[in-house]
Amino acid sequence: MNKKEIAEIKKQFTQDRCVITRICGCYVDGEKNKKTELKEAFLSLPEEEIFKYFNIFKKALSGTIGRNLINMEFPPETENPGGTQEFLMQLRKSALKDDTLLEEFYDKVIESYYSVENYLILLIHGVYDVPGKATDGEEMFDASDEVYEHILCCICPVTLSKPGLAYDEESNSFRTRICDRVVDMPDIGFLFPAFQDRSADIHSLLYYASKPEELRFDFVESVLGCQVPMSAGGQKETFQTIVEETLGEECEYEVVKNIHEKLNEMIEERKDEPEPVLLDKAEVKRLLEYSGVEEDKLSDFDEMYTVAAGEGTQFVATNLANTRQFEIKTPDVIVKVNPERTDLVQTRILNGRKCLVIELNEQVEVNGIQVRVSDPEKEEE
């Protein structure tokens, strides 16, 4: 799914557009015991509750594609009878009205999801009558192309609210506030099937993780049956390894700076496109060439890439480059630079010593205090 497709589904989580038919849930304590369950027609809930649920569901479709939101495909065997995809198909087809399937789903989650805190498993069933689109891109609500039937799962931590004082209107006094158990925003979630090309793709799903480095491998493998991709941090570390091993002793500042500048240019040029910028082996090699890496250094690149990342691995460009700052780090000093002004920083040999030279303008602050930078040549005059 791309940004436009995700945004189209998120738009349905409003009172006017709501496509949710049913909501189910299971509250689980830190010892994996089911405490209570809920089964409701969604629109029968009080209005205040409905809006709070909308916020939870929108959060499970928020973030950066390739970082918090990950498109996952089902291996073919999961679509056979007894497979994870086939089970999700049954769950969707039941419209969450089959108690046996629901209990089996809850059991699968509880077995594979590890948490010391209490948590709430939420499941919704939705039916979205996908409107057609005119040649100018405008939606035609009276010309539906198809119906997108789906389920969305959110697993939300349930934590104790902080103790404190609260005003009691009945007694007109301040009293100790009772600590309540509060449902937090989702830790993980998934939308099945994926909504691609404005249609249901039963061979894939969209996975959400609030913490990109905690993808919950056991849950993904056991409940979804999908292969867990490399995390955002893993992609960055692997890319750094490829660059370091390719350049070897010639991994110089200027070349690395060029690589990050080229990456930022690619991201900026395609920032308005719905699809994320992906780099496969050929594109990473081309990036290094454009950044000034000499041809002889790339002679073993293909083999090196396969060993480090795998043959078919693709990197998400936004996971590799920091578009907000360019960081230079030594054991004792960290310099952070605006990515658009990396030209202000150079490496020089001064008096036989390796130095990082930073061009200063008239505005210089030290711990928030504006200081004047003296000019030794003028002072000598």
Structure description:
With 381 residues, this protein is of the alpha+beta class. The chain has eleven helices and 20 strands. Strand 17 (345-350) and strand 18 form a beta hairpin. Helix 4 packs antiparallel against helix 5 and helix 6 (232-247) runs antiparallel to helix 9. The termini are far apart. The relative contact order is 0.11. The mean pLDDT is 89.
Distance between the termini: 66 Å
- Rg, please? 27 Å
Class computed from helices, strands and strand pairing = alpha+beta
User: Any idea what the shape is?
Assistant: globular
- Our count of helices gives 11
Number of strands: 20
Helix content: 25-40%
Strand content: 25-35%
In short:
The protein has 381 residues and is α+β, with helices and mostly antiparallel strands.
What are the SSEs and their pairings?
Elements: H1 3-10, E1 20-28, E2 34-41, H2 47-59, E3 69-73, H3 84-93, H4 99-112, E4 118-133, E5 139-160, E6 165-168, E7 173-176, E8 181-183, E9 188-192, E10 194-196, E11 199-201, E12 204-209, H5 217-224, H6 232-247, H7 253-269, E13 278-279, H8 281-290, H9 301-309, E14 315-316, H10 317-320, E15 326-329, E16 334-337, E17 345-350, E18 353-358, E19 364-366, E20 369-371, H11 376-380
Antiparallel strand pairs: 1-2, 1-4, 3-12, 4-5, 5-8, 5-9, 6-7, 9-12, 10-11, 13-14, 15-16, 17-18, 19-20
Helix pairs in contact: 4-5, 6-9
